[in-house]
Each structure stands twice: as C-alpha cells, then as structure tokens.
User: Fold these one by one.
Assistant:
Number 1:
Amino acid sequence: MIWCSVVRSPVNNARSAGPDCGPDHGYLFVIIESIRVYVAGRRRQVGLSPAPRRLAADDRLKRMLSRRQFLTASTSALAASVALRSRATTADDLAATQTAVGDSTVADRTLIQSTEARADLYRHYAARLGELAEWCDERRLAAQAAAVRDWLPARQSDRAYLFIPRDFRGANDAATTLPADALLTEFATRWASLRRNQSAALCSLAERAAAERQASLACQLMTEAAREDFSCRRAWRFLGFSLVGDHWQTPFEIEQARSGRTWQADFGWLPKTYIARYEAGERFYRGRWMPAAEEARLRQLAHDDWRIETDHFVVTTNCSLADGVALAGQLERLRTVWLQVFTGYLIDEDDLSKRLTAGEPLLADAAAKHNVVQFRTRQQYNDQLRSLQPQIEMTLGIYLASRRTAYFFAGAEQEAGTIDHEATHQLFHESRPVAKDVGQHDNFWIVEAVACHMQSLVGHDGYYTLGGADAGRMPVARKRRLQDGVYLPLAQLVGLGMRDLQNHPDIARLYTQSAGLAAFLLERYPEATAAYLRAVYSGRADSDTLRRLTGTDYPDLDRQYGDFLAALDR
C-alpha cells in the first residue's frame, strides 16, 4: 500500500482552578456556566435548536456541546479573571445531554465535564500566577515577573495546545533552585509551590479522565503535570521517563549514556570524547579523523549514508549528518504530539486507567523503530522510487507500507507539512497491528484526513498548536463549505475506498474536506474517532461504523460539521 503527498494542491501548508480546587469543582462549573449563558441570551451557539428534556433514541446525540472550553487570556491579564470561551452551551442542551441514554452520550457528557474542569483549573491557576507576578512587581523582580506571566500560553479556543517533555524537562530548575538571595529564594519557593499544587491537580484530573475513557485528554493532562513539576515522578514515569541523577531520561537515552554517548543537536549521539573535535569541524570515519568535507566526499563515493538513530526512528540520509539529525528531531516531536492526540488508538482505555493509577508508563513495551530515508536531491528520490510509484514526480514524500519506510528529499521544494503527513501514515500503520489493505474498500478518507490534520502542527516558543481556523487546510475547507456550498456528504464519503478516493476527479477538494472533518471529529468526538481509526486500520470498519460509534446519523454529522466551521468565524 502506498500513501503519498502531492507536489501542490489548491491548499498549501500554512507554513487554568487553583491548587486548592478539588476535581469535583469542574462539574459545578459546567452547570453554572451553562445557566449563565442561557440567561445571557444563549450566546455563542453553533446553530443548534433547543432540545427537549428527553431525546428519542435515534436523536439522542444531536445537541452535543463543543469539546473545548479553552482558557483565553493574554499574559498581561493573568492577574485578572480569565474568560472561558464557549460554543453552544445552553441549559436545554446540557439537560438533553444529561438525560439522553447510550454509551456515546455518556462519553460526550463526561468529556464536557472533564474539559470544563480543566479550563476551570487553569483559570484559577492563571489568577494565582497573576498574584505572584504582582508580588514580583512590587519587589522590582522584573525578570521573575516576566517569566511568571509568560508561563502559560495565551490560548485560542479553535486549536489544541500541546507540550513536548524534552522541551521542558530542565525548565523546572529556574523555579526550584534556591539562590543565595533571600528575596529570590522566597520567589522560587512561592512559584515551586504553585506549580507543585497545579501538577497534583492535573494528575487527579487525568486519573478521572482516564476512568471516564477519555484517553487523549488524560495523556495531555499528565504531560502538563510533568511540565509543572519536575519532581512529579508519577507524571514523568507515565510519559516513559526515569530519573537518572538529576535528569529524566528515556530508556534509549539511558542506554546511550551507559555507552558513553551524549546527544548533540547538530551531530546526534556522539561519544563524549568526540564532541570538541566535531565542533572544530573534524569527523571520525573509517577508523581515523578527517575534515568534515573529506568524510562527505568519501561517503558519497562509497554510497555510505549517515544513519541517525533516536528513540523511535532510524533516519538514513546521504544529505549530511546535520540534515539527518534535524529530520529525526522533527519526527520525534511529531510522534510526541501524535501520541497525545491519538492515545486511544494505541492503547485500550481500561488498560490506560490501570497504568495511570498504578504509576506505570503509558506504553509498556518498546516498539520497532520507524525507518525513514532522506535523499539529497529530488532527482535521486525520483530515480530510486519510480519503479515503486510511477507517478513519483508528483510527490514530495511517500510512505510505502510494504517496505515500512517513509521517503523524502531535501531542498527548498520540500515542506515540513509533507513530512508530518507521511510520517503520520507511518505512525498509524506501524504502531499497532493493522490489516493488509487499510481502507481498500471503504473509509479511506479518514486515513488521509488525520494525516492532513497533522499538517496544521505549528511550533511556538515552548509549545505546539494543532488545528485552528487559520492553520493547514482549514481556511479553504471553511470557504468551500460555507461560501461555495461544495461538500460531499459523509454518507457518500465513507463509502469511498483507497482507489475511489485517489482516482476521484475532485481529489484535492476531498482531501481539504477530509482535513476539516478530522478537526471537527477530534474536537467533538475524540474517543469515537480513535475507535473509528482502530476499526479502519484493523479492517473491521464498514460504511456504518462512524455513525454507530458517534451515535449520530450522517446528515446530523454533516450539519454539525457546518456549525463547527461557522463557529470558527465567531
């Protein structure tokens, strides 16, 4: 099976409760917020009509609330109250959700409650951080005040905010290392206390989310808990790290350290004794030291490529050592985000809850590493792969399931979004057992949809965002549905197999629509989407699977998707 990224499409890649707030507080907040919105005139709806107190069985999921209730506040307003942005939250809608029957309805209700509790938690935490920043201002601790105000990203409600443990596993030192100055010591103690309490609250909320079968939310909360508290063993262990001395390390990092190697941003894993000479421009190759240019020349003559190994990938490249290391780093970051978004695809929800409660790692066993090949030029890429994909010239990257390898080329023509797209195919295909011909007869759209959605991943200072009204293919998806009225109903889309989709005359339009639908489903029905992906990749899905898992008829999903897109404008 082949997945590939075309050269160009009409859409290019767009390249807070306080520590003393118990977990049950979020449930009360959901009710209070819903009544407040109702009394205020039912503002920020997504166009859903009022629901009766009890719904018919086949109508029970028509009035679901939006998944995210995100904190939106600028860092300059941390000391003030933080507004909670909401879409479609009315008293009638909440009542309908509460009285409806069926597993999907219960799952959506618990998701709403968990995300509301998360938002409430951060709202109170932001207020506490604001108070600490004011305390710093009063004592002329300008740098410390700025650090506190910058700690939480200013969130927008239309995208996910995700953190990568490798980016912050040393960040706690600045907050907890006690300096000699008494005033600075008091600041460090205050900030560390706030963060420890926040971390504990996030862990508790994650445990509740896992018990309620909200796998992705639980994984994200545990990642946020680790970011808040460097000493939170439970969170770090869950993420797969072990404390070695004063550093959290993965099993692969521990193995490399025992071999006397250390990670270098430009060179990958090197023996410690090599670092100075590598930084001076030398390379060790064929048993002797030589200039970097000489190594590159000899490797080219011998067709001896560089090989960069990381925790989950093996990158082979004839470009340069630095290029291979950079690509490996991008792939590792992508996998970390992918794991937080699609946790439910990888692990059974019951097993997740048991592991979290027992303080065990999310993933117990080390999986086989993913192979990636990077060519120096497009011509090399075309020549090597043309026999496997006759239309290889039309692609920027390709994942070949038969070879369990993703292929790319370097240069200005390459796009980061293409790498994220193809590597996403690889992660889904190789991270658990899958059928031989995924999506061969139907449901192939979701395979491309989630890969397109991952192209909206954007890196920021200390965090990443996924999705958003202005990210990836979403701007064009909104235009085509809302302005042009161009849309293939889900009832027809799910019936398309791989060949049907790839040979469709409007393939670019369907890819764009699929990307928008993925964003909608991951926000509104995240765990149903994970279950749908498991069914598709295991070969158990049919044209009715998505409807059954969401508990919503396809015409209603079509309507909800339109409402979702319209709400982005507001």
Note: The domain at 2-10+438-568 is CATH 1.10.390 (Neutral Protease; domain 2).
Number 2:
Amino acid sequence: MKIQNKLINSIFQKILLIASFSVMFIGIGFANTNTFTVTNNSDADGICSPQNCSLRQAINSANNNTGPDVINFNIPGSQRHEILLQTVLPAITDSVTINGTTQPGYDIQNGPSVGINGQAIVNANGCGGEAENGVKRDYPGLDIVAHAPDEVVGNDASGTQIKAIRVENFCVGAQVSAGIAKPGGTSVSSDPIEDVVITESLFINCIANSAVDLQNTLRAVLTKNKFIDNSDNLEFTNSAFAVAEESVALGGQDSLEFLAGTTDSIARNNLFIVLPTTQEVTDFANQYDIPELVGGTLRNEFLIRSGIFIQQGASNNIAEYNTVKRSPTFGINLAGAGDDNIIRNNLVTDSLIGISSSDSNTIIEGNIVRDNLNAGIAIAPRRVSLGFFCPSATVPPDLDEDGNILNCGYTINNFLFRSSTGSKVIGNTIYQNMGPGIVVGGTAVSSNGMKIATTTNNTLSKNIIFDNLGLAIDLTNDSDFVFGTLFLGLGNAWFATIAPDPDGRTPNDYLDLDLGANNLQNFPVLTEIEYTKKENGEETLKIKGTLNSEAHKTYRIDFYSSENSGESEMHIGFIEVTTNSNGDADDFELEKEIEMQILPLSHHYIAATATEVGPDGELLSTSELSDSIAVLGE
C-alpha cells in the first residue's frame, strides 16, 4: 500500500498543476493582440481585410503576425454556417484563438454554429496523400504545429485555442504536433507544442485517423467536446500533462487512446458510448443538426476495440469518473501499456469484458463494473503485436502454437509477451456480469515449454462482488486468443491478445507449490462462525479458520459477508497470520464487535481470501474466495 499511496500522491501533484492550468487558461485574454473577424463562409485565399475575410485569410493573417492573435466570427444570417474547403487550410504556426462562440446565434446546447467541411478534399485526394507543401499528411481540418512547414525557427503555435468549431468530413479533425514531417519519411525534431486548448467543438466523420490527434504535446486541454462517427476520437502520442474531460463520444474504433510516450495525463468525466443505439445516434444527430445520421446508423463501422485504450509505453496516466458503455471487446483496456496507470471511479457496463489489464503496478480502484458479457475485471499476460499487414487474412486468422499468423503467404513472428504483476484491484463494485467478477489469467507458455509471461503479485482487496455468473474471483492458467481487425485503408491488420479463460475453483495444495495466476495462492478454510448478541446489546462476530500455504510467510486474511454463498458483498475486517514450517496457520480467529447496520440482517454467509504479505508489508498475490459458511448465532 505504501507504493500505491506514493504513486497516487505523485500523480495527483502533477494533475493538480494541469487542472489549475486548464481553469486559468481557458478564456484568457492577451494584451496587444490583433483580432481578425471572419465575415463570410467562402474559402477565399489571401489576407484578411476588415470588410471581407474568410477563415483561410484570417489564419494567413494571424500566422503573419508574430504573437498571440484572435479570430472571431460575424457571418451574416442566423443559420449554421458551413465553410466548404477545396484544399486544406494553412497550418496554424503562431498562437491564435479561433473563437466560434463569437458567431451570432451560438448556443452551447446545440453545438457550434460555424464549421469547416473537408468532403471535397477527401473526395479528390483520399487520405494520406501529399499536402500543399509537399509533405505527406493526413489532410487535417485544423493543423496546429510547433514550427511552420518552412521550418522558420521562432514560429510556434503553442498557446493556440480552438473554441466551438464544427469539424466534419476530414481524414483527421484536428492535428496538434511538434515536428514537421518531411518527404522521404524524415522529420524535424522540435520541443513539444505547449498549452493548446480545444473546447466546445464538434467532430464528425473523421475517417482515417483520430478526430483529435495530439503528438508531442505538453499541457494540452481538451474539454466539453463532442465526437460522433469518427475512426478514432481522441489520440495522445508522446504527450505529457494532457487533460481530456467532460466530452461525449459515440462510435469509433477507440474513444480515447493513450499511446507510446504519453505520461502524467488524465481522462475524466467523459461519456464514451462505443456502440450507440439507433435512438442514441438519432437523438445526437437531431440535437447537433447532422442530417446524415438522423436514421440512427453510423457510416463508419469497425471491429471496435475499447472505450479507453492505454497502449505500450504509456505510463503514469489516470482514467477516472468516466462512463464507458457497449464495447464489443474491452470497456477499458490496458494492452501491454507502460506501468503505474490508475483506473478509478469509472462506470463500465455492457461490454465484452469491463476492464482488462496486462500491465504492471496498475491501480484499478473504486470502479463500478456491471452487466458485461464476460468477466467484470480481467488481469492477464498478453501477446502484443509489433504491427503487421495481412491483406488476405480471414476472420479469424490461422495460427501456429505460438500465435504466429500463417495465412498471409508467410509466417509472421512478431509478438512481444507482457507480464502482469503488482497490480492493485481494490474497492470495486462488480456485479451482474456473465462471467467471473475478477479473473486472473495464468502463465503464457510457448510451444517449447518456455515460460514467457506471468501474472503474479496482483492484490484483490475489499471488492464488492455479487450476482455474477462465474466465480467471484477466478485464478486460472488457461488463456484464449481474442482477435480484432484494424482497418488501415489498404487491408486488414490483425492483433491478438490473451484473455483469461475461466476454469472454475482451483483446489488448495499442500505448501502451495502449484504455479499459475497469482501463483494459485491457496485460499483460507473457514471452520466456524458465531454471531452473539449479549444482554447489554453488544454484538460480536467470531470467525475461525485455517490456512495452509508456503512455510514461514505472512498472509492477510480478508473477511467478507454476503447474502448468498460464494460472494463478497461487504468487507468486514482482516487479520494477519504467519505460517509454520508445515505451511500451516492453524486456528486463526477474528473476533469483531459489530452493529447490525454494519452487517445487514440479510447477510447470512461469510467467506475470506488470503493475500501474501511481502517483507516490507506490501500486499502481493491474492487467492480465490474461500467456501462460504453460514453465520450461526442467537
């Protein structure tokens, strides 16, 4: 717990800096700025004039003026104004605030009243072609860069704010990046682009990459935005201290991705509906005037992976107070990511698996995980694809014993194996899932019998687990492959992950020598439970039991009460025991004074878990839940 508290405190200190920055920065004004007002919805090029100014002209003028500028809107007419672009807008290379809230008639409830539409660009060029400056880019609607394409040092779009702009029918909605890509695949390195804010904007049908793509950014703030019918919605790469909050996303391969190099960032208070219903799409389309979606069908359909996806190399990030619904794979997925991420106080529902992690030192705490089609929370080792291309692959692909794909015309051997150790699954409420409440996958083994990845020292404590179809806690050695498709435009690329296959209760063994998930830690055996109510009204619960495990080790025995056998609806206390040379901790006893409002009258059963305690007092591997025994008393 010392490591957990230290980690939380460290990240909290960093996140508080982000939060204070976001509150302070949004809406800030600058002295001595130039203001350019867009007066029409044309796509005219050139320089802005007070009487006649297009958005393209306003961006040109702001780029030419060193220092922060403001672009406002005053287009005649009360209707929503759409700027139909024929070519990509110039990259934003100097700090500017593009403020769609200044357009007369703007109403936050109905979304932006001014927007840009890139359908003509996509129709003419597809995605991933050559942009105006000869640089291969993904035709973003808004391109915010640290340095101009001509690499003039000193030009820097840090501090740019985008407010209440509708961005529709582009390859990428808004691309925020620090380095400029050059022909031939090389790039210009630069310091991170800093302090970019995107707020109250609407992103629709961004089809090739993400609606908002952040690369090499520092302290970016994305707040109160709306997303629908995009390929991906929010993507962070090599970014630090970023905030994504109070936004809504319907559809997309992933609602939010923390990718390689992203650290100390936070996603909070967002609503991600991965597979929206027809009615949800229609209601959204009516509210935000998207006639193409009024029928309730999204145009972009993918084998969607997850609501929140934390990938390889993303560490020390937090996802909290989000609602994630209806992912066909994982609601929240830590897929071979970096270490020390925190997933807490989220609602994850109606997905295949609620929360899945193959990382180390992850904290999964205080979440509500319910009504998922398999396990509520899954901890497992994982094969992580290094990336490959299979234009002829079918669903699912043919594999050898090591998971290599064989039907691409050649064998691909490009999987990494990730262990999952040291995670803390604490204080979650897990119920009405169609698999186990918590399942911990075992050891991944290659075809030659070599142990490749393990799942050990994962602590499962104080979780409320009930009304699931599987065990409350299931430790297993079996794993199955789960396949998905990534649509890359040219064909299909496959990824394969290991999802634990529940195998039922694992029997205890003498001295706990068996290996597997959490070392298949033996569970306690409860022998007697007595509830006593004295004449003075004092109530006492006495629990007795035994444990056989590894010799000369300390274990924490956590006790739970529940209405039904095999569940853990309420944590009622714990004791620590030490085993002797035979591995026995005989006749342990917990005697606890209780009040009836603490132990409900309906809770007739008690069960327990055993968790190994390390030399420094840290909690390590937790067992499955013991057999429940009934409360006996007066």
Note: Residues 125 and 193 are 28 Å apart (CA to CA).
Number 3:
Amino acid sequence: MKEKTNSKRFFTPVLILVMISIVSISAINSYVNIRILKKHVQKDIEKHKKEYIQKNKEKVHQYVHFVNNSIKFKLAKMEGILKKTLRERIKISLNLAKHIYEKQKGKIPNQQIKKMVAEQLSTIRFNKNRGYYFIYDFNTNINYTHQLKKYIGKDMGSLEDFKGRKIVKLYNQVIKRQKIGFTKIYFYKDGDKSQAYSKLNCVTKFEPLNLVIGMGEYLDLAEKEIQAFVIKRFNDIKIYKNNYLFFLKLHNLNGGDGFATFIMNPNRRDLVGIEIDENYQGAKGQGFAKKMLVDFRAKGYSYTTYWYKKPNTKKPKLKMSYFYHQKDWDWIIGSGFYFDAFKQEVKNIEKSTNEYIREIIIESMLWIFLLSLITLIIAGFISVRINRTIKKYTDKLIDKKLELETAQEVAEMGSWNFDLATKELNWSKQTYKIFERDIDNFALNYDSFLTLLHPEDIDMVESAYAHSLQNKTAYNIKHRIIMDDGRVKWVRETCKTIFDKNGSPIFSNGTMQDITDGYTKSLKLQEKEKLLERQSKLSDMVELISAVGIHQEYDNLKVALERITEISSQTLNISRVGVWLYNEDKISMNCINLYSLDDKEHSSGVQLEEQNCPKFFDTLIKAKTMIIDDVSKNIISKDFEKEYLKNLNIKSMMDIPIKKEGKVIGFVSNSQIDTIKHWTKDEINFSKAIANSVSLILEIEQRKKIDLLLIEKTNEQNI
C-alpha cells in the first residue's frame, strides 16, 4: 500500500507538469505563428498595393496615349492628303508661269512678265475662295500678289507669324532644301487678329523670273472634323470596368479663371461645355487642378489623386487620374482608376487571414485537448487496456473499410483521373456507363466532357474545379449531364488533386455517381412543398380579402396591399413586388405600394410616364401579361432600362395586368434584382391570382366608399 501511495504522489506532479508543458508550448507556438502570419500578410498587402497602383497607372497611361496616337495618326493622314493637293496646285502655277514666260520672253522686260504671271495667278481661287496664290521676288522680297491687298507691292521680309518667326525667311529656307517644299505657320484669318490659326503652306521658286510662288490652307476646319470624330469615338467607350476617358480644352497653361473647358466626360455629361478655374476641386476638397498645371509646365503630364464621383454610384470614391497635355490641339486627355476595388481585395485578404487565425486557434485547442486526453489515458490505463482499446478500434476501422468497399460496389460508383501536364482524361468503365458512352468510340477529352454537361451547369463545374486548384482543396458537387436522347441525369462528382513540392497541380482523381432517382424525388418533393406553401398563401389572401370587406377602418386598403405584396415576394422569393395603378390622365401610372424583400420595407409614389416607355404602356393596355426573363434582351423593357431598371439593377420582371370590369387599371410588378430569373408556370399562375386578389380588394374598397356616401346622403335627407 505504501509503494502504491508513493507511486500516485509521483504520478500527479508529473501529470500536471506534462499538462502545463503541452498547454504552454501550444499557446506560444500559436502566438508566434499568428504574429509572423500577420507581418507577412501586411507586407503582402503593401506589395500588392504598389503592384495595383503601378499596374493601373500603366493601363490609364496606355489608354490616354492610345488616344494621343490616334490624334497624331489622323493629323498625319490629313496633312498628307493636304500636301498632295497643294503640291498639285503649285505644279499648275509653275506650268502657267512657264507658259507665260516662254511666250513673252524677249518681247517684253522680265519685270512686266512677272506682273503678267502675278495677274494671271491672282484670279485663281480654290476651296470657296479660301485658297489663293501669293508671289514675291526672291531677291527683293517685294510682293506681287496676295489675298490681302495691303501686302501687294510691300517688302515682305519683316512680316512675322503669331510665334514671331519671319515668314519669308521660313519660305526661303524651304526652297533652298527642296524644289517644292512645305512649312507650317500660325496666322490670323478673316480679319480676326485675336486668334492664331495653323496654316500649311507650299512654296516653290520659278527660276527664270526668280519668283517665289506659294499657297496654303488653314488646318482648323479639318482639325475640327478630326476633333469631333475623336470625341464621338471615345465618348461612350468604357476602357475597363468603371474607368473612362475625359477631354478638356486648355485655354491657359498658367491657370487662372476659365483656364480649361470640359469637352467630353461620360461620367459627368453635365460638365461638358463648362469652364473650370485653377481652384477646381475633387469631391472632398482636393485642389488637383493646380498640381496638374504645375506638372504640365514641368513635364507635360501629371498623376493626381483625388475623390470623385464613380460611374453608376452616387458616392465619391478615391481615384488616381493620369492627365496628358496634347499640345497639337491644346487638349487635356485624362483617364483614371478607383481604389475601392483594391480596398475590397484587402478586406478579403484580412477576412481570409482572420479565418485562418481562428482555424489555428481552434486547431491549437484541439491539439491541447487531444494531447491532454492521451496523457490521461497513458497515465490512467495499463498497457493491456490500451492494447485492448487499440484492437477494438482497429477491428472497427477494418469493418468500416469493408462496409465502405461494399457500398461502393452496390452504388456502382465510377471513377476518373486527369493528368494536368498531358491534359489526358481517363474514365472507369462505370463512368462510361453513367454517361451512356461507348468506351471504344467516344473521343474522351476535357472539351468533349464539357459537351456532355447541362449548359446551365458548365460554369458551376468549371468554377468548382478551378477553385479546388487555386485553394488546394477537394470538392463534392451535384450537377446534370445530358444523354443523346435528351434525358437528363443528376450525378454527384468528387475530386481531389495532387500537387508537387512547388504547389503546382499535377494530377486529379475523382468519382462520379448517378443519383438521378433519389435527387429527382427530392426535387419533386420540394416542388410539392412549394405548391402547398403557395396554396396556403392564397388561402391567407382569401381571409385578408374577407377582412377588408368586413372592417371599415380607413387604412385597410394600405394594410391589405402591404400584406399581399409581402406574401407574394416571400412566396416567390423575389426581390420586389409592387402594385401600380393608372392616374386619372391615363398617360402615367403611380406605384401605390412597393415591397422590398431585402430591406423588409414598403414604399410608394414612384411614377411611370407613357412618353418614356410607350411600348410598355401599349402592351399593358392590351391586357397582356409581360414575362421577361432577361430585361436587357427584351424590346419592351428597353424603353425604361436606362432610367429605371439599370439604376435598381433589375434583371428579370413579370408584370400582370389588374383588371376592373374587363379594363386594365394597373398591374402587379414582380422584379428580380442582381440575378436573372426564369419564371415558371406555377409562379405565373400564382402572380395572376395575386393580381385578381388586388382587383377584388380595390373593388371592395370602392364599394365601401359608395356605401358610406349613400349612408351620409340618407342621413342628410332624414335631417
């Protein structure tokens, strides 16, 4: 007894020490791992942020310079055509001068011949009198003919364009290099000296008389056509997601009031034509215009961060924009990207990290529990009991394994494998039987496998496989397959993938089981339950209609409509159900009750005008039921898709006319938000019953009002 007592005293402190060690080591290990993980995650977020910003800066830079290159290309093409035209006209002038010179040479002085050439060329006009020849003496710079009479007979050597360059000097430099050459000057036109216009001039020298002959064409008209083309081309282009291009006309590079005017902004079309000053700010007061101008003067472009309205939203978001100074037209071309997408990615990373930390904590607690339990078992039981326990559980595992193997044989479960390196797909014989394919004649590969899937399930199956590869997890899914005769089978598919030491997937193994009978029965049972539920809801509405007919409270109609829209929305599991009635003018409709399933709230007061959606009103007045699975592909819903459906993100709709005495007085609207819904026959019939119930309640309410009026009239007569 004494030795036994000593043994117990020794056993107790050892047991406590072991337990404390297990708990301490597990806690410290978990804490260290969590700290290291958080540091790595934070570094990854910072790295990802830099990569996100750099990637998107490159994108907007690419799109802005695509526009700039388009402008350069158009200008070059325009100038090429214009140069060809001017060259041909200069050749005509040379031929005419040569003809006059050869005819009069030796008969009259050269000075008189010069005047004859000038007189002949001065009568020739092109492009509605905008195009004309000018002539001056190469040695004396004396002008012989010009559209502006004040220059005739004058020395043109001192004449400058708007950039301060001597025009005759430019012409003479061109003539020295080429027989027929081109130069661009900036000059006024039509008597307007307040603004300079770009003009392309073509000049040549008629050697026998030492005359310089030239003509030019202003580029502003052609440039305006190109500018209009560029604005039209890029106005409605979304380059990716919510990003867009915008253009401004720069008036003053130094800033000030009205330094620029918006000429294109798809996100804020109300700003087009509006001048802005250098203090123009973002949504939260950032004066980014000044920074942009400073950068323009220094390097011709600017990256600026500010808050601005995001497309399809009312709230401003943080944005970085790239502005580029297009100097040919003095345009500001800009595009940007919003940071909220990156913030959402960060939230997802943090959420995943927190979930992983919870898993670490739970796993640590499980390890503590398991290690403690093992310690207690070792300390409390002798080896014989341990051996018996091990044997007992070993026998059970063997039994379970045999049961599992037998169950697989009875279930006729097929198997498959897929080599990701060679893209080779293999099926077992049972899998071929499930798909009803000939093992010798069917060309099996991944693409042919996809053709056997139900079209509505292809994306789900591919997504499940891609997700399992990305997250290195197995999957277990149910989906449909199509037989040659059109029959549909339901199968349960499982998959587990093997990865190499670098984490790359190399081989996938899976099973395929036909579950058609059991799953089909389950679906039918669910349909019966839904039908019973709808019948129950219709029974509730009958009681509701009876209650409206019996009671006389003023708010009964509102309460009844609220209850009906709630029942319909909950039963059909759709986002919104509303009741709309014609106004007295019959050219507009008012929503008297609208229930939102997501918000659990009722509202009213929204109006539809016939002028905005004539096809919808025309269809409704003919008492036609409108069943629209996809509003983006239906001609009726196109009427008010932009102003109403897109703002609410409505994807599917079903509108049932409400009739009174055979005439349409309104409709019950059923709308599905975010996802496309395919309306079933039962759902359509249920909604028609809802519309009939609304019609009956409105009729009861009208009769109650008439009865009240009769009672009041009778009381007045009795008095």
Note: Confidence is low (pLDDT under 50) at residues 1-10, 548-554.
Number 4:
Amino acid sequence: MIAAIVLAAGGSSRMGRPKMLLPLPGGTVLATAVARLLAAPLDRVVVVVGSDAARVRREAALPDDPRLAVVENPAWEGGMSTSLRTGVLACPEARALLVSLGDQPAVDPDLVRRLVEAWRGGARLAVPVHPDAGGLRAGHPVLFDASLRDELLGLAGDVGAREVLRRHLHAAARIEAPSPRDLDTPEEYRAFLETGEADSPGGAGLAVGGAPTGEDGGRDDAAEPPPRIALVGCGRWGRSILQELRGLGCGVSVVDTAAESRDRARAEGADDAVEALGRLGAVAGVVVATPATTHAEVVGEALHLGVPVFAEKPLTTDPEQAARLAARAGGRLFVMHVWRYHPGVEALAAIAASEELGPVEAVRTTRTGWTSPRSDTDPVWTLAPHDLSIALALLGALPAPRWAVAERRGGRPVGLVAALGERPCVVLEVSTRHPERRREVRLHCRDGVAALVGETGAIDVARDVPEDPLAPPVRERRPYPDEPALRRELRAFVTHLAGGPPPRTTAAEGVEVVGVLAELRRLAGL
C-alpha cells in the first residue's frame, strides 16, 4: 500500500486566518490539494489536522473518497514532527509514505506518479528537485520507503521530514520538477490566484479519474464514460440546466409531471423523459430544479436512489425540513447556490481572504427587478438566498440577524431590507417592485471597497489614499473569467460524480441559509 500524509495542522500565523479553508476555484486550499493527490496512484490519503481541527473538518469540503481519512494531532503546537508522527502512525501497513503539504494545492498528480515509479524501481527515497538549481534544491512532496519509518517517527520539533531527507539525499532518486508553491502569507495566496495556478491542468478536475488503486498502487487509466444524471423539473430554469449538462457531455434523464415539459425536454436533447423518479433507470446523480415548496418532498424521494443530489436553492422553505434532509443525506446532498460559483464573487472572496484591502467591515448587496416568474412562493424566498450565500462566501459565516423590514404589495411580500451582524455586517436588499434590474455586491474593507456591479466582466476596486482622506480613490478594474456560473456549478457536481471533490455548497450551508432567512422573515413580520 502507498499512502500519502497531508500535513494540515499548523496555526496559519503568517496568513492570519486558517489557510486550509481559503477559497480556490475548485474548492478550499486543502480540498484542492487532497483532490490532486487522490488523482494520483495512491491507495490511501491521510490528512493530519490540528489547529482549528473541528472547523477544518466541518468547512474544508474534502472529497468523499473511501481512500481518504482525517486524523487529529492534539499536540500540533509541538511542531511539524508531531503531525508527521501522527500521520505515519495512521498508516501502519504502508510500504511507502508520501509526505505532502496541505498548503500546496498545486501538487501535480503526474509528479506523484513519477515518484511512485522511482520507488517501484528500488529507490528508498524519491524527491523532486528544481531543474534550475542543479538538482540541489529538494521540494515537495517526498516519497519515503517504509524502511525509513522509524527515522520519521524519531523526529522532534518543527523540522518535518527534512532531517531524514538530508541524511539520505545522496542516495535519493531525484525527479526534476518545480516544487508547488506554498501559501503561507496573504501575498502568496493572492499571487497564486493571479498566476492562474489554481486553474491549471492537473488540478481538482483530475479527480475525475481518481478511482481507488490496487494494492501495488496501480490504476486503470481508461477514460470513464460521462455520467448519466437525472434532472427533476424541466421548466424555465430546468431547461437551462439541461443545456449546460448536455454541454458538459452528460447523459440526461428528465423527470417532470407535465407531458408538455417532457416532450420539450426530448426535443432539446434529453436522452429520455419520464413522469416519476421511480421510473428512472440507473443514474450517477440527481439535480432538482422543481419549485422551492416541493423541495422537501422531491429531495427526500431523490435521496432514496443512494446517489448525490444537487438541489436548487433554497433547500426548503422550512428550517426543520432542511435540517432533517441534511441529516438524512449523510454528505450526499448539495445546494445550487449559483452565485457561489460566479467568477466575480470568487474574485471578491479572494480579496476578502487575502485582506489586501484590510479586514472586511461590511458586505452590501442589492438585487432588484420588476415582478418575478416564480409563483409558488414569495420573492423573499426566491431572491434573498442568493445574497445570503454570497455573504457566506465572503465572510466564511453568516452573522446573527439584527433587523429586517418587508416590502409588501396587496399584503404579499415583494421585498426585504435586512441587516446581520455589526462588524463585519451584512446589509441586503431584495425587491420585485423596482423598475430597474440591479445586481450589486460591495465588499467594504478598512482600506477600500471592491464591487461587483451587474455583468460588466470585471471587479471595480477603489483604494483609499491614506495621506489625503479627501482625495478621490485609486481605482482599478480587474477582469474575471467570462464563464456562466451555472456551468461552473454543474461542472463541480459532474466532477464530484466522477470521483472529484464535492461541490462547495453543502447541505449544511443550505440549512444555514434557510435558518437565517427564516429568522429575518420573523423579524420582518412575515
């Protein structure tokens, strides 16, 4: 058995916040690193957590893979050697141990494969060396034969495995390859995002081929067929989902009670269309795009199929129903908070996490328009979940609701203005009684503001001039990728179905959004 030990227990003192939870396009830093290792010829991946262990377990959104285990090092403050020891002890049957770092999300599965091949060829130690350093600068990850296990266990202090590496480097198999970048500081994290390494080939998408390996670390490299997905509900939004799934190469079986919708779905590319979930053939996953008031029933039925379920927001319109579904799902339920996958929101989240404009002090969102195509529930349930999920992406958690005022027409809610928290706070406005369609997210930080306004293709950044408080701000426009958020979120689900990391929008997030919105409605008298 070949096992990887991912060291992810440190205190992130230089970053100023848990770096393992920082967002990347494919998930968190830690989830991305783990997904890439799962795409390599490894039989087991052990993640060692320590500082903020409970939060990392809860929020890292690690891939759902039988090869993955998470262990806790309660003595993590004693240095990296204590985490290494914890990982080694968790792999008693390993014939080789790959030591990798959780803050290196760009680790290359092909590099791991080359290290494994060198070990199979008889090397007790296989290490990547930088091609521009004459083979003298060793990097990560490093593969150790099990015969070096006792030396790894004998390390002490904050030295990691480098002492064992130093002793045996003269006899190591050296693989020329650049070492992946560490993310220790906000500047390094920001540079990592700007260089595009987070989107580079060999990333989380490679987990599509991450099937469990054999006892000797071998694997089947044959390409897997695209998954077949059930789409429940093919109305106005469901038709867009159908087209995106087809564009991603998926087979789609539509489930809809309306004969007209089934006929239209077949005409628009669905492989088949049936009137009930019970009439489906085998599918790899289910997407639910029915009206919000039906979600509790439809999602509950979909969970009986035993496959992952991706449900449109809100998860339900009742907090207790949402909590029951999440508890029952056991990690198989995710929520389609599409704005979490918007590249502009991802850019704002990176600015918030890196603190390049200073700490976040407020998030302000506006979402208005004239009327709504939804008739099963009021616009507050339809629109506000978007902005709550955005605030969750930018702040990492939703502050406590403070106050809310409802906008009504003929006694029916048509809008809401609400505030959560104090510093940072969230102020949101949603309405279907505004003559202009407006979509705006403003991130207010100590030293400036970053804003996503409409679909302009760029983030507007305005920085304060410290020397002159009355001077106009220094302004900058930062383009973001021009790819539909719906396509990005569906790709995340499809990748998960093929063995990759789970979508970032978990059922727990869905429950949190529903619970907070229910409290805001109560405060507004709805």
Note: The domain at 228-338 is CATH 3.40.50.720 (Rossmann fold).
